[in-house]
Design a protein that fits this description.
This protein is mainly alpha-helical. It has a single domain, classed as Arc Repressor Mutant, subunit A. It has five helices and two strands; from the N terminus they run αααββαα. The protein has a two-stranded antiparallel ribbon. α1 crosses α3 and α2 packs across α3. It starts with 11 loop residues before the first helix and ends with a helix.
């Protein structure tokens, strides 16, 4: 079992949602794959089932997962949505990196040279 260290500044359900989202966009969980049960996920993260349920509800609102009433929750088969989500995450990470580099005194040309 992996020991997760959660950031106290971000709600745990958001952190779990982001971990699952990264697993989807990085193809660790593939389109159409069934997710673990809420109970199994809550045990994996060491949180309550309600916290996991909230994370999964948000992922479902984003269209990344769906529920089959009696079969459980599955990853979307919409590969374009997964690709778009992956690009959005990449853009956010790049923007954060650039912001951090500017804060320590680099300008855009110096950042490009470092890359």
């Amino acid at each position: 079992m992996i020991k997760y260290e959660f950031d106290n500044d971000i709600p745990i359900y958001v952190q779990i949602m982001n971990i699952i989202k990264l697993e989807i966009v990085s193809n660790k969980i593939v389109p159409g794959q069934k997710l673990l049960s809420i109970r199994e996920i809550s045990e994996e993260f060491g949180v309550t089932p309600n916290t996991v349920q909230k994370s999964l509800m948000k992922l479902e609102e984003q269209g990344l997962i769906f529920t089959e009433r009696t079969n459980g929750k599955f990853v979307t088969q919409d590969v374009e949505l997964i690709k778009t989500t992956r690009q959005k995450i990449a853009r956010e990470k790049i923007d954060c990196f650039i912001k951090d580099m500017k804060e320590i005194g680099y300008d855009i040309s110096e950042i490009k040279n470092l890359i």
